[in-house]
Input
Amino acid sequence: MDATMNQKRALITGITGQDGSYLAGLLLNKGYDVHGLVRRSSSFNTGRIDAIYQDPHLAGVRLHLHYADLTDANSLSRLVRQIEPTEVYNLGAQSHVRVSFDQPIYTADASGVGALKLLEAVRDYRDHSGAPVRYYQASSSEMFGKVVEVPQTEKTPFYPRSPYGVAKVYAHWITVNYRESYGLHASCGILFNHESPRRGETFVTRKITRAVGRIHCGLQKKLYLGNLHAKRDWGFAGDYVEMMWRMLQQDQPDDYVVATGETHEVREFCEKAFARVGLDWRDFVEIDPRYLRPAEVDLLLGDPTKAKQKLGWEPTVTFDELVAMMVDADLELAQREKTLLDAGHSVTFKTSRD
Ligand code: NAP
Ligand code: GDD
Output
């Protein structure tokens, strides 16, 4: 038998994002052949995976990148036929909640109907052994929105509060429907907020830690934020992608809440992040109403009991360790920026508009 026949082959949408980059690293380490969907951009968008793509031991051998888009159904079915994946991870999305109020239709298309387009592409597909492809859908705690119970479990009804949340509810239910209708091995991970030094700079944790680094190095004076009282259940992205993989290794597909079971206010994140470099957050943080949302999700707190029992879920990074990890990484980044500036180079830093 051809040796490549037994090779596990994953297709990851959203490979250029935070989670996609961690998942690609994890799967490559497990010996997978990894294929990533990249959407065309006029500027570089592969910064998070450049290190693994350019690794001479991996480049072009086990990590392959392909241009396609979740809004373009033809590109998705062509990719599936070409790659013949054994596992598909749908992580691609317009994932910014506030931006979804500005671009609700695009968000519905990419984050909602995009999942349907990908499911259609894999629905009748069987791998070399005749098995249906295993499919992971990146569902979100944002679907709980105006929460109807605390903590939230797999059985908590959804009450989304943003076009993004509504799009994710659609993607979630269409995935469940394809599982029930066509016997697809399709699982949804209802993941609560997870962060890392690779988090996009417009999400609140990274916006804060980026500012802490730059303020400490004298490169920024103030940090403008919106609602400081929102509470989130924040974990470390590296831990969460492991759960995506474990879901697809189960005999039966299912849906799981992945969370830490702790919740913290945005204000508390600020306090700890500034304290890490010996500063008092109250001297630097100001409220700018432009960062408030038309409808807010006030409190998220997940109950990961099912994931603990069935997937062996055990988060490895505490809230305090997460804050410290992100601040330390952004301090190093700001120090590098300062060195470049001091040497007369120009450094562009864009203040987050989200
Ligand atoms: P992220 O950093 O914003 O990455 C999103 C990815 O989707 C990027 O690779 C992006 O490409 C890609 N993308 C956007 N629009 C696309 C389109 N039309 N076609 C194809 N790809 C597209 O998000 P993340 O934090 O890694 O999250 C991964 C997934 O989990 C997302 O679906 C998100 O909604 C969901 N989720 C995240 C969290 C969290 O706390 N991080 C929690 C629950 C669920 P570019 O790089 O070109 O922009
Ligand atoms: N982005 C941002 N910028 N958020 C702010 C700011 C600000 O200046 N000031 C306060 N916040 C508050 C938001 O109002 C929200 O209540 C909270 O900080 C977290 O905002 P984000 O970090 O943008 O994350 P999110 O919870 O809205 O969405 C993230 O988590 C979801 C899972 O619950 C995203 O990663 C989604 O893609 C993901 O599904």
In short: Residues 95, 97-98, 140-142, 192-193, 202-204, 207, 225-227, 230, 232, 266, 291, 293, 296-297, 300, 354 surround guanosine-5'-diphosphate-alpha-D-mannose (ligand 2) (CB under 6 Å).
